[in-house]
Give the backbone structure.
Amino acid sequence: MSHIPSQPPPFFHRGPSPLARFAFFGLLSIALMFADTRFRYLEGIRQVTAVALYPLQRAVQMPGEAISWLGDYFASKRALAEENAALKADLVAHSLSSQEFSRLRDENASLRALLEIEKRYPGSATAVEVLYTGRDPFTQKVFVNRGSDAGIRAGEAVIDDAGVVGQVTRVFPAMAEVTLVTDKDHAVPVRIERSGVRSVFFGAGAGRPPELRFMAPTADIRPGDRLVTSGIDGTYPPGLAVARVEAVDRDSGQVFARITVRPLAGADRSTHLLVLGQGAALPPRPEEAAEGDAAKKSGRGKGRRGG
Amino acid sequence: MTMFSRAAVFTPARPEEILRQVNPWFILLTFLLGLLANIAPANGVVLALRPDFLALVILYWCIQEPRYVGVGVAWTLGLVMDVADATVFGQHALAYAALAYSAEYFRRRVLRFPLWQQAPQVAVLLFLCAALILLVRFVGGAPIPRWTYFVPPLVGALLWPLLSVLLQWPQRPARGPGDR
């Protein structure tokens, strides 16, 4: 094929050669990646583009919504009656615990008042619906239909009816990005409900079971144990169900036990989620070491002057 | 000048047919449709099989109309895709720019083959695009994906003949009584 030139003859000059343009844009992409991952300079551009994309995303969902609406409209009476009966049975099953709940809440409040512990649970929550799942096969993310317009902020916990689904990682004006607990290296501080042992739940990416890392082989963990959030991170309120222990592999040759778990919430299935508002009662975090010594020193100096 | 540019675009299926000048708005519309197909909600099998439609459309126009669509346009569309996917800025941009460049390099060779023989060559270019994204993610510390990661480029290559016929439809000359 050497007789077919891949370049136009020089008298049809059309600006820089493709190779030069590719080199320029390739380097620009690498610079952008660096700026985005290291310094987060580009969140503004991302926000603007996301707003421009939002009508497109809504338009694309309309056919699916229309079909499901039509399906609902023509759903048979029998199916609706069955669903109604199931929901009523569910309601009765939960009514006892919900009545118990109000009594326990009062009791808890008075006990906390006695112990002078501040209230941690503001109770504000926003119901959201999943717009679409992220297309990126390397991360576990979903996009939901409310954003900063509904007061959602980055860092808030997201749950469904069975437990913790994930955490809001980016907020757009009418949309928010939720990183699921199954995302690689996404960590949730948990507590074994049975024994009270504290641990950290780590996601492992698509298709791999999450695990509890850095647990001693002698830790009191058994298959079937329920994990609930411990609440010590200030992100997830305490007591939310997270996962169930699947298998515990105690190899005496290893420093840590290998504990795989299965998330309880339908992180990959649920379409209706709840975003929990963050509690305001936690004391501010101590400054990070990565912020630099200068910032820390000036902060301390101010504190001393104030005192 | 127009004579030269017209002579350059032959339909692979029927080399004697001379296509009409493409409307730039049509190119823009196809990019929009490709983007819509990429961000449409999907789950399970559909999500696992769905090829990168935007990359396919970019590839088609880079091969057919290099005067309109080149590395720069592909790069810009990659940035839009990065936002829609919430991936690192520049990941898709780099992959699409590489795709556009390789398309520009191979276009004269690809155009000499019938559509069904173009598909394997397109598959190679799409694999290249996917491998570049994989490389970027490895640098970012992503885990090794399952083998299904390389299914969508294959599906994209299988769709190539259909997509080519669809995209060149508006450029087909009207077949009136004046035709020989």
In short: Residues 1-13 of chain B have pLDDT under 50 and may be disordered. Residues 79 and 93 of chain B are 5 Å apart (CA to CA). Chain B touches chain A through 49 residues (CB under 8 Å). Helices of chain B lie at 2-8, 24-39, 44-49, 53-64, 71-85, 91-110, 115-139, 151-168.
